């Protein structure tokens, strides 16, 4: 299996930590959206797409990258995110990204989310939410998620 992870991680590097944990299990490199062209994604059997969540939306760089990705023709993908709060039912950012990929011909085989340090806006005044996150336990969960993905390809 040839895998790659496209990760837009800003602020504190929360999402990059999760991407690196998943990538270590899958043997996948981790790249920022600007480090690979959307066309190159077709070379991979499994592609991960993830970012932090900012004001209830995935990173705009990742959204633009996914918009430019050619049809997946049944290739497998997974989505992941870190956020300061639980994904709200009225604005499901992971499901929206998964639906976008499915509509573009990808088979979305899983999703992962965990908390991350959030210092956006007024939260910076109090030192943020979720200090110490993603934690070692969160990263173990991310590796467990990746193990499940890998089993699907063995």
Automatic annotation (TrEMBL):
InterPro entries the record matches: Flavodoxin/NO_synth, Flavodoxin_dom, Flavoprotein-like_sf, Protoporphyrinogen_IX_DH
Coiled coil regions, renumbered to chain: none
Domain named Flavodoxin-like: residues: 4-150
PANTHER family: PROTOPORPHYRINOGEN IX DEHYDROGENASE [MENAQUINONE], PROTOPORPHYRINOGEN IX DEHYDROGENASE [QUINONE]
Name under which the protein is recorded: Flavodoxin family protein
């Amino acid at each position: 299996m040839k895998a790659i992870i496209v990760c837009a991680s800003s602020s504190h590097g929360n999402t990059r930590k999760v991407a690196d944990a998943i990538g270590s299990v899958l043997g996948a490199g981790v790249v920022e959206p600007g480090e690979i062209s959307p066309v190159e994604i077709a070379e991979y059997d499994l592609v991960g797409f993830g970012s932090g969540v900012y004001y209830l939306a995935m990173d705009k760089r990742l959204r633009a990258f996914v918009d430019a990705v050619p049809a997946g023709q049944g290739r497998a993908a997974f989505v992941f995110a870190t956020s300061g709060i639980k994904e709200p039912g009225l604005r499901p950012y992971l499901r929206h990204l998964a639906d976008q990929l499915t509509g573009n011909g990808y088979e979305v085989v899983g999703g992962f989310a965990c908390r991350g340090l959030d210092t956006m806006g007024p939260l910076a005044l109090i030192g943020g939410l979720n200090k110490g996150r993603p934690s070692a336990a969160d990263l173990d969960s991310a590796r467990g998620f990746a193990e499940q993905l890998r089993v699907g390809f063995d």
